Each structure stands twice: as C-alpha cells, then as structure tokens.
C-alpha cells in the first residue's frame, strides 16, 4: 500500500498544524510588510509614521486577528462537517464490505455527504442482495458435502474405536468424541482445559517417541511401496483405562508426487479384555487346582490298592474304574485349559510399545488381586518396551504365584531400569532367603500352559523370544533373593539413513491444518491461519497489583478462522479473599459459590495447557495479562504467548469512530452479546470481534501476526498500565 505524506497523522493534529501555520504566516506577512514599507520611507516620512504609529499599527493586526478567526471558523466547520465525516464514512464503508453487511452509514456532515451516504447505502443494499444470492448458491452446492460429512460423523459415532486424524506435525485435524473421552482421564478434567482439540498437538496427550518412530518407519516403507498400518503401536494407561493405539498413514498427491501427509490413530479400550484375562487366569488357576486335587485322589486310590494284601477281582475292577474316571476328569480339564490358552495366544500374539510404568501397573494389579502379594515399585517412566505385554505379565505373575505357594513370599520389590541400550532390566527382589536357585531354574523350564498342538512356552522360552534372558540373583550358594529379566526397549530399529519429517516440538475437524505452517515462523503466519484463544477474566476489583484476584476465567479457541464453541473453559475460582459488593454488582457472581471452587494455582496449569501454541486474545489485554503475570512465581508458569488486544486493533482499523469499548465494537459489528460481564460470555464476544477485525486489518495491509503486533504498538491505548 502506497504511503502518502501525513498519512500517520490524525485529523486533529493536521487541523492544529494548519491553524498554527496559518497564524504564523499571516502575522509574519503583515509584520514583514509593515517593516519593509517603513524602511522604504524617507527620514521625514518615517518621523511622521512614528508619530502616527499608535493610530495606524493596531488596525492591521486587528484585521489579521479577524482573518484568523474567520479561517479558524471555516477550518473547524470544514473539519467537522466534511473531513471527519468523510473519514468516518470511509471506515464505515469498509465495515460494510468486510465485516458487517447489515451496517448502514449515518452522517452528521454536509448535505453533499448525506447524498453520498445515501448512494453508498443503496450500493450496500445491492451488494448485500447479491451476497445473499451467492451465499444461497454456495449453500446449495454444499448440501451434498454436508450430507457426506454427516454420514462420516454418524459412522464415527458408531465405531467401537476412538479416532484421531493428525497432520505430519502431529496437529489434530479430526477427533471423535469417544477418543476425547478415552484420553480425557490422562490429563485432568475438561474444565481445566481438556486434552484434545483441533489444531492441538497429539504429543500433548500421547508420548511422542513411539508415534514419531512409527511415522519414520512408515515413510521409509512408503518409499519402498510397502507402507502398512502400525498395529499395537503402544498401550497407554489413562486413569483406570488401558488404551491400545494403532496408526495408519494418510497419503496426499501433489504435482504427481504421492507422499504421507499425516496419520490416523485408532484407540481401543482394552480394559475389559484385561479384566477378562484376569478372570480367565483365575479360571485356569482353578482348573490347575482341580487337576492337582484329582491327582491327589488318584494317588489315594492307588495307595489304597497297594495296601491291600488280598484284593478280590471285583474290588480290583472297582479301583481300576475309579482310576480311569479320575484320569478322564484330568484329561478334560487339561483339554479345556489348552483350548482357552490357544484362543488367548491367537488374540495376543503381537508385540506392542508399552511404557514401563504401564507394565509395572499391570503386574502389581495382578499380584495384588490374585495372590495378595504386597509390591514396592521403582521405574523410569520414560522407558518404552517392545514386548508381548500379556506373556510378560503372565510369566511374572506365575513366578509370584510359585514363590507364594512354595516359599510363602508375601512381598516383592519390582524395578525396571535401563542404561540407554537396546535392553531394559526388570528386577524382582524378595527379602526371604529360603528360595533355592534350583527351584528357580526349574521354574524357568516349566511350561506355563500347553497349546492344543502340543507346543509349550516356558518363561525362559518367552523371554528368549523377546531377545532377553533371565539371571538369578544369588545371596549365597544355592540360595537366591531375586532375578533379573532383560527385555527389549522400543524404538531400537536402526534407521540411520532416515531423516525425520517431524520436528522435535512443532509449534468437529479442520483438514486445512494439513498445510499448517510450523510455529517457528509464527510471526509470518497469515492472521486467518493462526490458532487463537480468546479469554476474559472476572475479578474482585480493578487493581491486580494491590491484591485483587480472579474469580472467573473463560476462554474459547479459534482455529483456521473458525470459532470452536465446544472447545472452551468456563471456570469459577476461589479468590481466597472477600469479593466487594461493587464487583458483585458488575459480574453477578455470588461469593458463596466461590468457596467450593479451586484456587487460581489449581486452575492455571490447565489454562496454560489450553493456550499452548496459540495466540492469546483479550479486550484490554493488559488488564487480564497482569493478573496472570502476578501468578507466575506461585505457579512456575509463564504465559509467553503472543497477545493481541481487540481494543488496540479496533483503534487501528477505526481511529475516527466514537468508542472502542467491547459494547461499542460489538454494536458496530452487529454482534449480539450474551452473558455480558461473564468470563466466557465476554471471551466469546471478543472472539467474534477478532474474526470481524481480521478482514478490516487485511484491507489496511495488515496480513500476519507480526504486522498486527506492530500496528497495535502504535495505538494511543497501548500506554495503559495496570
């Protein structure tokens, strides 16, 4: 946009510059003229003029004053009835074309401007009519698309799995409600910011390394035309739920080149299956007990026969039939056990990425529920294991049951450690020194169960299949106090030639996020493409530096120029101080309702996560940000996001309009205010105002965040401090 001389000066500055310049010029001309005329006179004439000066000189200056008064009056009328109205009409015309088509120009200027305003309003009526026709045509054209979207939404709502679609940087493009519910318990309540949202990073709720690794492998396999889904990518403990995560690639075509542009995650709640496994294990254990009981009966019968000195044929036949019956009973139990275990192995044959802490939770739950064994655990929560978690859990559980039954071990210390190599070590220790090394060696070779085809898996064989081994920890000769089991860590596949396409920390559905730029260039990102969080606070007063506190926090997200009403925060806060009646009169919050609410230090961590990687937006943002800044020391959280202020932006696009309060701007933009002076209500209005301001900023050549911040700093309202 071409810059003109004085473009940055306000009409008032131009007015006073013109008026003062006129006064200086008029008096200078008169003074110079009088002095020049006096010097051109002869000495005699100069003497005469000197005698008459007290009568002659006042009249030119009086005339000059009258001329200046006339110029002042005419300039003021020109400024009031023509210049300022023209500037306001220009702003109002842009408001009609860019933000509020229902707005109509009203002017207090001259008759000519009133005629011009009528012509502009007539053009606006025609423009609005054409716009409505275009909107109707677009709406008709989108009916088929909306129908497909509704089918997709209905299909996803019926799926037994949670679904999340991400771009290659891990930004969420689509998520189902079930996926949100599954991962919700991993990161707190929704009122504290939730965990899933459009444009958010999936790495905030799922561990990054397994996802990035799987994406790298997919990219590598894709180049070889062998890309396939990653099943059983990881198992994550979310509250009381165990979630299994699978990944599949999303491909795109561009300039005859096909590439992976994102990925789909399916989330499967396997908590019920794990519970069923536990029940099945109890059943199998009951079967084993039944077999042992049957064997005991058989031995009793045999002993009884052996003790008899003389046995009649009928008696012998009776005992043989008894033994055959017991043997048949035993075979039936074993056959049932084989079938159950065979079915189970078919369902759980895949290895998966499992967090060491999750494996530890599975083991401790099993030991407590099945054998009432007390456990003490220690683990590095960053260790990932690539294992058949079911087989490992059953091996350890079997060992614990053996120790409990044979040596009455009641407490076990569990530890998982790693030296950053390809193997991690699971250590089991117990204090009792009565366990013999020979007994543990026998346990290693004892089959856990046998398949129907006769194939057996012992603990040693299971660990060997994982590439690990079992080492006995001996306290003295022939006596042991623990064992070490080595297990493979995840992400150990060598891909040295690969270069990850995922940055270490890159800055409903919104598929346009497939092309979202990285956060490293946030200042150059177009305003329409940024992710915003519009927020507002209600407080006990207007002086944060003097002890006033927040009593309500409201926020809502904007992604790709879309206001996401379902991704919001509306949280009351206990200020831990009295709320003055004058403040209650404004926001209407009953102080008694605040007593049971969380304090600000409990709320801010969730809000900090909610605004991550976003531009924060508020009206008169300096006020709200000051409250947050004063809590940085108490919470250890720093809100260093870029901040846009709708008050400042409004003064940039409408410097000649009267009033930049939230109500005045909303009225200009024809925005209905619902819940004024409630935190969420004002946050929603602020968000809608921002969406209306963006096209007006673009019309003034302000297209990205850096330009918007630079323009805001020039606003006269930027000097307000709290």
Describe the structure.
By secondary structure, the protein is an alpha+beta fold. The chain folds into five domains: 11-139, no CATH class; 146-269, 2-Layer Sandwich (Beta-Lactamase), CATH 3.30.450.20; 288-347; 350-516, Heat Shock Protein 90, CATH 3.30.565.10; 520-719, Ribonuclease H-like superfamily/Ribonuclease H (Nucleotidyltransferase, domain 5, 2-Layer Sandwich). Helices cover 49% and strands 18% of the residues. The protein has 22 helices and 19 strands. The chain has a seven-stranded mixed β-sheet with strand order 2-1-5-4-3-6-8, sandwiched between helices. Strands 7-9-10-14-13 form a five-stranded mixed β-sheet, covered by helices on one side. It has a five-stranded mixed β-sheet with strand order 17-16-15-18-19, sandwiched between helices. A hairpin with a 2-residue loop joins strand 16 and strand 17. The model is unreliable at 186-194, 450-454 and 492-520 (pLDDT under 50).
User: End-to-end distance, in Å?
Assistant: 36 Å
Percent of residues in β-strands: 15-25%
Percent range for helical residues? 40-55%
Query: What is the β-strand count?
Result: 19
Taking all Cα atoms into account, the compactness measure Rg is 40 Å
Task: Tell me the CATH architecture of the largest domain.
Answer: 2-Layer Sandwich
